[in-house]
Amino acid sequence: MQELLRTETDTANQDEPGLVLGLATTAEELEQLQRLRFDVYTKEMNAVFPDAIDGVDVDRYDQWCYHLMVCDARTSKVVGTYRIMTPEKAIKANGYYSETEFDISSLDNIRHLLCECGRSCTHADYRNGSAIMLLWTGLTKFLHQRNYRYMLGCASVSLADGGVQASQVWRAAKAEMDKHPELPRVTPLNPYPLEKLDATGEVKIPPLIKGYLKIGARICGEPAWDPNFNAADFPIIIDLESMDPRYRKHFGID
Q1: In a 10 Å sphere around its CB, with 0-12 CB exposed, 13-18 middle and 19+ buried, how is residue 107 labelled?
Q2: Mean pLDDT of all residues belonging to the chain
Q3: In sequence order, which residues have a C-beta less than 8 Å from that of residue 16 and are 6 or more positions away?
Q4: Ramachandran region, residue 201 (left: φ > 0; alpha: ψ -120 to 50; beta: rest)
Q5: CA torsion angle for 45, 50, 51, 55 (degrees, to 10)?
Q6: What is the distance between the alpha carbons of residues 109 and 118, in angstroms, rounded to a whole number?
Q7: CA separation for the pair 105, 124 (Å, rounded)
Q8: What angle do CA 190, 160, 119 make, to 5 degrees?
Q9: Which of 35, 85, 101, 249 has the fewest CB atoms within 10 Å of its CB?
Q10: φ and ψ at 16, to 5 degrees?
Q11: Domain of 240: which CATH number?
Q12: Which pTM does this prediction carry?
């Protein structure tokens, strides 16, 4: 692993050792994070991975991506991951993964500055905030240090509850999008039927999406329907120049 950042956890408050952020550099490390992805997505979202082999989530995009990984410093176990595709690698891969779900032609004018992140997951025992903040730090520094500006991704909301939570996310997203009609929109290729997203009640945004929005990301279109993941996928884009200044400082780019 190419180490990028190490943080020591306050063990007086959290039963967790220090965490290390890095980039996977070996086949063994890649397999570890692919196994984590398989475990998290299949057990928690009932995802179906057509190309999975022996509990390893692998697809054709992995070979073109940089793979962020957070490891437990005590055991070297992979406990969190993201993959990143650059615009140059996307050309070689014949497109971003997002393009299997969305028409992103509205982003053509910024494509040379646009990276994609995906396959985000953290082990259930490491969801107190430390691991995901390290991963977001890694994403931000990756963009900043390599002179990219935008990060595109899909935030999945499970449909196991019949679409209730996805409905709540869509109501909040639509209200925000209506405030900013000048921002670009992407279009789902296989739209989730919005007429099914009519649940009422308090809006409860999933923690990952809430975190994205808190740092300055925006949902930039209607959700796509991903049957393999049993999820509604919301397209999200972040612009480093529009990121909340507090988080720019926290992530070390100001």
Answers
A1: buried
A2: 88
A3: 9, 72, 125, 126, 128, 130
A4: left
A5: 40
A6: 22
A7: 36
A8: 60
A9: 249
A10: -155, 135
A11: 3.40.630.30
A12: 0.89
